[in-house]
Fold each of these.
Amino acid sequence: MRNLLSTLSLGLILSFSLSAQDKLPNIQLKDLSGNMIDASSLKNDGKPIVVSFWATWCKPCIRELNAINDQYIDWQEETGVKLVAVSVDDSRNSSRVKPFTKSQGWEYEVYLDENQELKRALNVNNIPHTFLLDGEGNIVWQHNGYIPGDEDHLLELIEKLNAGLAIEE
Amino acid sequence: MKKTLFFALSLLFALSACDEIPEGEYLKNVEVGGYEGTGHKVFLEEFTGVKCNNCPAANAKAKELQSIYGKENLILLGIHAGNLATTDAKHPKAFNTPEGTELFNFFQLFGVPVGFVNRIDHSTGGIIKGEGDWAGLVAQELERLPVAEITIQEDSYNSSTRELSVSGTVQVTGTINSSNVHLCLYLAENGIISPQTMGDKSVNENYKHDHVFRGSFNGTYGAPIDLSSGNATFSESITLVNNTANGDIAVKENCEVIAFIYDKDTYEILQAQSIEI
Amino acid sequence: MKRILLALFLGLGLIGQTSAQGDGKDYGQIHGNFQTNAQYYLRDTLIDPNGNAFPDERLLAAGFLNLVYTKGNFMAGIRYENYQNNLIGLPEGFKGEGIPYRFARYKKDGLDITVGNYYEQFGSGLVFRTYEERGLGLDNAMDGLRLIFDIRPGLTAKALVGRQRIYFQTGDGIVRGGDLELNLNEFRDKASSTNLIVGASMISRFQEAQDPIYNLPENVASAGLRANFIAGDFNIFAEYAYKSQDPNSTNRFIYKPGHAIYATGSYAKGNLGLILGYKYYDNFMFRSQRVGNFTEAMINYLPPLAELHTYALPALYSYNIQSNGETGIQAELSYKFDRGTLLGGKYGTLLNLNFSNAYALNKDFTFRQGLDSSQTISGTDGYQDWAGIGNIQYSQDFNVEVKTKINKNLKGTFSYYNFVYNRSALLDGVIDDLVSDPNNLDMVYVNAAVAEFLWKIKPKHSLRTEAQIMLTEQDRGSWAMLLLEYSIAPEWFVAVQDAYNYGHPDPDLRVHYPIISMGYTRGTTKFQVNYGRQQEGVFCVGGICRVVPASNGFSMMITSNF
């Protein structure tokens, strides 16, 4: 038991020293037309990408995506950012995702992670969970949960990223 | 290469897919009453409750097994415990006992109906068995050879104090690999007519409760018994339930005494015996 | 075995580290997450007079740590779990500590190999789905081998073999299966907006049989066919699955085969979304062993086709799938009224209508005389094939939600719920083959409404309020609830809530359930503490019920990932 714990804590220390150059793993996602795409192939012409994990039943997720959607046109114009909304709805709700996003008026790229493979590979505990990727696809920041106003902070980080500044948090 | 591998695998699946039992052969030819055991008895403790709607079906299953193997091979005990074994307006009697509650908590039960078959698999965390498991486990346990033989006899009954005294012997007939054997004496009562919630949630006012756990002669976990000499004797007594408040009064003639020895380290029951008094 | 994997894992980590600052080569990454829940229980004689739900331990705690190593196409991971002991209401089988989950995965030349534990789903899950739902205490991970072949673009085959996790052990049954999916778009010009995706899957279980009464099939199989047709704004999905004879403890050892149909059709264009769904599940609960309680060893997943409610009061009457068969429909309409229109107001308004229901099947039971001369369906076909819709209603749910922005800083969500809820079946686990008179069932009729406001007071400061009311004359009676949550982005929130069961038929149980909670978030680490009294809920699966008792105390949750 003690061995195990020390192994684990060692693992923890190691990982901190390694987490600089992360990209999305090559896990398959489904688009809303049923085609499979590889998460590692998500691109935005050298501009930042926000990857947000959500579900149709997750109220804070929807609050967050609606809050961003209110300002999304401005964000895109000012920073060129793209938001990718990854739904972790299982087959109970996955058929609702497309009509749901339409009726919310979201203009995001939406993908399904039906059995939560990408969510697990990225070690997401709970949703909402947001990742910020730089122009090269490196994960530079992530955040768990949503508090109203978080979107303003996210925009600051995107602007910082576009200005070529490092994100230290 | 990949294709070949894939088709080889799919062929394997197709071959191993499913067995089809023809209609009319679902049941084995079971001879009722003719079962001859090895002498190793199986003790099935069934946790139940008067408000538990799934319990009558589980109880029927236990009785079905008993009718196959006979009372001399399969001993049943219905332990009323947990929050479905409490009284309310529709269920004036709940038959819960301090010992039953202690067992329920000690073995960390989380619901009824469930049971223990000779209390096996406690060390691996799998002691709690659903009713669907009972048949297979009882059959498996019955095949074991006996390691001891227990006899019980009624010594006296005082109808004014309601005190029942019994005595008996334990004779080692095989190899017992434990130095921590305990003997336990439980009292059960048959034929109690009292309301029980049934499968459709209706309450059957005239439900017949059999082998209801009424308490222990010598504590929930019994007492150590020294079998180093190959045999031992015991003598214990109990006061029969007499709850005048709700009319729950045990009838001595319907009672049954169950004695069993078990390995205190694993809780596994080594041998059991019962007599009607 | 565990130890070897761990050593391997650690080795990889070390290689990673030594080189990270070194020659700049990619030696992979390690990531992980951590979660712990702990609760300190206080004795509360009002909600728990006998102390049944008061644990001897007083303090219960559970924790998890996931570690995943990735390097290019290689991935490996472990999960350490610790239950000292599991929180009240969650399965007590999760006890002690260990590494029940570890895997290694490699992708090359269109072949994807996983060894160890894995989660997988075929189609909608009718035939096969293993997944993890920590909140329910559900983890049906497979332990074995999985191969995924990309035979060519648009044609994928999966094959797997293994056994399923049950707490810290694996189940008795060996599971093998495969799936083939064909995406026609990949076979032609991609520009088309019309597409057809078809799939076929199959799963089989082997478990030795030694029952003295029943002749049990040792091999049980289930197979399904599915198609997803997409044409512009229309999307139609349908799956049918068949299961061979599978007498088990959940279906009470009946021998009829199982059938399942799950179909949805949706239309989404502009501001309009429309969904229709149909389900027919007959004797289709499939476990990787004959005997299992709750969600133990479930191989497949039956989509409930009912909306999942998240506001606290409506969620007290959540729908549970009925393992012995059910059928129902769902219809949902959502529409966004544009800004500037009459109903849209200045900022636009979202409207959502949802209806769903579920009924038992119309079973014509076959009985036989049991050996103790009682009537039983065990050891017969059980009932007829294709029974159709029966007269026992399980549930009906109609709800309306309106979301609107009142002014620049104030958003409102208003919802109304109307439920018909069969408490006997859904909470008490009454199985329909035991129902002699449907009038004996406890039906609950519920009307509920929720108003939620989100007020942005000033930059980073916001106040969220929920007012909920739920009216019913049955069961525990009516409830009202108020919640206030004040947040300071991006780090803090504090919330107070009080649910009041003012309409309980027993005046002594007209109890307040107040809870105060506070949370702190920093990056990906979240810390939350709650103090208060939690109302009772009931959790039932497969004929046995577990009461999640009311509790009182402090609880704490930490989640973190890196």
Amino acid sequence: MTALEVKLRKVFSSKPGRFALEAEFTAPAGVSVIFGPSGAGKTTILECIAGLTVPDSGRIALGSGPDTSAAGGVTEAGSETLFDSDHKIDLTPQRRRVGYVFQHLALFPHMTAGENIAFGIAGNGTRRETLVRDVLERFRVTHAAGRRPGEISGGERQRVALARALVTRPRILLLDEPFSALDDALKLEIVADLKQWLSRFPVPVLFVTHDRSEAAALGERMLLMNEGKIVGQEMIQPLAIGN
Amino acid sequence: MNWQAFALTARLATLTSLILLLLGVPIALWVVFSRRRWKFLLEAVVSMPLVLPPTVLGFYLLVAFGSGTVLGRWYQRVAGSTLAFTFRGLVLASVLYSLPFAVQPMAAAFRGVDQRLIDAARTLGVSQATIYRRIVVPLAWPGLITGMVLSFAHTVGEFGVVLMVGGNIPGATRTLSIDIYDQVQALNYASANQTALALLVFSYLLLCLLYGLNRRTLLWGSR
């Protein structure tokens, strides 16, 4: 099982009152919720992991994580560094293979749902078509494949955004409050589909939210954040939903 | 109306705007997305024709086209003639003179593309060139049309650079604006008025088309 190891520091001197983000945690395969109030620095952590923001210092690596099924332990074998300020390593977002579902989804408005999903798949032809068809079915949006984001519902857009991020088989999945605009019933439906996918392809997932019910529905462990710092960690009692 | 000058002007403006579409897109992309600290130097060069008297640009182009420069000698060796006082020379001069009219609206349109879409594309693993080709340029198409229309209209109306570089050779370098000047010199005001009025109406209609298109795009985008 792989785990995401994060240790970073980023100071924003332009923000009012100077804001310092300092975070250190390990996220094993499964869903880790980053929970905290607005402005705590949750999104910035995700951006640093995706390579969209460069930390001032620290290290972000994907490596062998603690084996939760047995005694296990962390090894360095097979680990890959995405960012390391000491060794001047900073992979581009393209090379990190990180799936990112943005808060505002960021679907390409001029492409259909199918084209959005196919966008990140390398190569052409039948493999691409098969992957797109499969993920459309799994997220129950086959009917929306030929329509543009402006022509489908909020829930369908959410599913398309998830499908687009997952179809490339990312090694890490980052979810930045992607369900905040949905009603509870729809939210739980999508969460159930996502959990099913993650049971097939387990990767470390960082799920940013400030909604405790969302955290309980999807998360396994919670990182509590406040004013740029991780102030606590706790395990989440699972809720029986969907599957 | 001097139809020969009309056809020549239409050919010159069409060629110029097409070349500027090919040239303007990569320049505008570089201006917007490059992180080079010295890029303002190139931005200033591209925008020079906006503030430079046309005769200054025309004079230096005339000198550059002559046999006293490397460019002039090279062209003479390749083509067997000089660039000055030819239609090709006129096209080159028009491209340089109208460059900011193409690049600036294109750059503004590229800047307007939502950064979150570009970030999303980057996390999906595609190359920067693919992001430009499939996200940035298609979403900025109204800016590309604006750049082409403005450079077309600007080329139709240019006078100083054309006169300096091309002179006044019927069928080769005599454009509509030079023709108007000729008619006025010959005190043929009725003919000059006919051509001037045609250019006035053409310019007005072109700008109406441009603003109408922008309005439609805005309405389409807000849906």
